[in-house]
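tool_call: predict_structure(chain=1)
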Amino acid sequence: MRALKVKRESLQTKKNFFVSIRGLPLNLLKNKQHEWIAEKGVSLSLLEQQTVNSLPQKAPLNGHHKTLIVIPSYNEEASIGEVLEDIKKYAPGVNILVINDGSVDKTAELAESHGAKVISLPYNSGYGVALQTGYLYACKHNYSIVVQMDADGQHDAACIQDLLCSVYSSDVDVVIGSRFLGQNSYRTTVARRIGMFIFGKLASLFCKERVSDPTSGFQAVKGKAVNFIASDYYPPDYPDADFLIMLSQCGFKIREIPVKMHPSKVKKSMHGGPQSIYYVFKMFLSIFVTLLRKKPKI
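tool_result:
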């Protein structure tokens, strides 16, 4: 009995750990996101109750559609300016939203000076929270297409049009830019490549679609998938293979296309260092829970 009690307490401790982000309970997280966006004159208090004018999940896109590029950024003053200029060069006229995730440098000021709209979070909340804040903004403003990319210069802006063409011209809901398809020769550490291979195989198995780059943050998303990412089902820290599996289980179609990626100018990674141990443990656990949980209603 004592052993059972200790086991239950251990499971509860793990549960409490995974339902918080930076000390903020997840049941308060969405309200905080609403407050952050409201500071920019956007009210999202009725987001869950109102119908967003998104496109049908299965319908291909034709013609011109309202598109938003979302860029989560944390202390990226060294690269954000060049990234934004490249976007304006290769995707002229597309609205750009930078989510400043509690940066302590000049990321926000530089982004605004290069013509991007900026939402600044009051403290560093993590990649998933910052990215979802962008999707909440997209939903409120009825964007039917969202392109997400990183602020460190790894994602080649010249490939934005490839992502958009792929999502425009098919019934695919999420197009993922893979650094490992085609003639690409992207190099990474052996440990990271092994992790990508394992989680890619798991995602491919359960998505019934080849996934070679499960950690790619270079994606184009359309229609109801935009709404789904803005929902409470979205992981708050590392939305990778686990969320791709969830998307597939909910009937969303996923496809990879080859894109070009560059080595980061700053030697940092949200999957590196001591966080890599947490990432691997969390991802296996999250995939396991995703497979067991009841399929979300969309």
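agent: Residues 30-42+61-292 form a domain with the Spore Coat Polysaccharide Biosynthesis Protein SpsA; Chain A fold (CATH 3.90.550.10). Proceeding to next step.
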